[in-house]
Amino acid sequence: MVLIITGCVDGQHAMSNMQWSALVTLGAALAIAKGFVKSGVGEVVMDWLMLTLGSWVANPVVLVTVFLVTGFLLSQFLSNGSLVSMLAAIGIPMAIEIGCNPMPVAMACVFGCSLAMATPVATTTITMVQVAGYRFKDYFRIGGLVGLISLITVWASLILVYGLI
Asked: Which domain holds residue 30?
């Protein structure tokens, strides 16, 4: 909007070059997340997680780890934007309920879903290089290793930055 208002970019040019699919995807992701929260599914999943994790759920490190790893694994096959919205809709209220800072949990959701690189369907950019003739195991071997290293780095960073230990 600033570029259009200042005259750096023509409004018609901006509209014609807009990535509408990205905008629609983001809008749909937000709608899915809102429906997830309004329908009560988020609370059902949250209750199930609390029941499954038991007393471990009160530990912020465990909560961050669960949402980071869940985001990492599911984003290899699902849309990152909608997955972040769904995980955050579960994780943030869960963190507030146990009395810990919701920011590291939210960051775990975002970063976990951003590390999608181990499968050719993880992100659009990785899908585009599939025409080079790479096989599924090639993506998993390289992307999985880089993703795992990134996952460990992000986990340690979140723990240290937010002082969870």
From this structure: 2-161
Total-model pTM: 0.70
Nearest to 80 by CA among 55, 54, 56, 111: 111
Counted domains in the chain? 1
pLDDT tens series, the chain, 165 aa: 787 788 888 878 777 776 665 566 556 656 766 676 678 776 777 677 778 877 777 789 999 999 999 889 888 877 777 788 888 888 888 889 888 899 999 999 999 999 988 877 767 677 666 666 777 788 888 888 999 999 999 999 999 999 887
127, 120 Cβ separation under 8 angstroms: yes
